[in-house]
């Protein structure tokens, strides 16, 4: 068996501890234990990691840019993190670098020069999303030649060309799903450079609840068109199911304003919930008709909560069609209507699929499973680089 690294440098512009990518960072570092050389993050919210092994951007000058529009500030902090990480790599004694797409270019260049194996985590798909894209698009040329100060602001953003260089520099790319993997294969990457990295879920926090008396469908996530919320609302209005409710847990975005006007009383919007597990436990099914995700964390939570799911292949690999849910094509209202109607009219099937989802989550998607996958990915990266180190 290939040996794992002894000292890892881990860098993320997320926080350590919380939800979403913040939780991913925390669980990754928990798995490293004494192999963690240094973690660099935007902020640290946990107390179960050795503080002397964590560096944050808490007092970094990039914080002065926080008043900028969100996309520019996010770009600035990612590039600041990358500069800090690359300096640590050059002056430290690390034998593996773990970074994130869009914030690791300088670090990956340093790792390559120093002969340090590297893994790059891809939170979504290849930047081209399975399309053929020219070296420079008209929009990119306009951004490069924009008048000052807009040109300066544009330089804070992570360019497509920078992301593509990161892909090439990294020894191993961590992709979240079969669909994500396909976008890299389409772009010419060999499968040997791709490692499937499913996420995890807390199966103690997310547990099945009693079956609700009324049929209740749940969506969790940002209320935006990319996640298919407009399609879900269209389907729900068409179906007008007697005695049924649709719960939406997430912040409405302006692009959905017209879709949210004049909603029937059966639709309830909860906004962000710090106790989201309670909403899962009070619902009958989970619906997530997204057209593009890495691997949606809500699908893991729904599975652990014992809910049958209606989702898309583009949302990740948690759902096996016909086993623990129903897969539908994205942007297909008719297919969505049929799937909802099928589970509405067959509560036993919904319960059966929900139980299968819970079993799948417990057997494959706990955070312990996730940490084992991280260790396996590190060994694979070391094995790729090892012949070059001999």
Number of domains: 2
Fraction of helical residues: 40-55%
Kindly, what is the distance between the CA atoms of the first and last residues, rounded to a whole number of angstroms? 17 Å
CATH C-level class of the largest domain: Alpha Beta
Radius of gyration: 22 Å
User: Strand share of the residues?
Assistant: 15-25%
Biggest sheet, open or closed, and with what strands and sense? 7 strands, parallel
Shape: globular
List the helices and strands and how they pair.
Elements: E1 8-11, E2 15-16, H1 21-32, E3 36-41, E4 43-44, E5 54-56, H2 70-91, E6 96-100, H3 105-114, E7 118-121, H4 138-144, H5 150-154, H6 160-169, E8 172-175, H7 178-186, E9 194-196, E10 215-220, H8 229-239, E11 244-249, H9 257-260, E12 267-269, H10 276-281, E13 285-288, H11 297-304, E14 308-311, E15 325-327, H12 333-344, H13 347-364, H14 367-389
Parallel strand pairs: 1-3, 1-6, 2-4, 3-5, 6-7, 7-8, 8-9, 10-11, 10-13, 11-12, 13-14, 14-15
Helix pairs in contact: 1-14, 2-3, 3-6, 8-12, 11-13
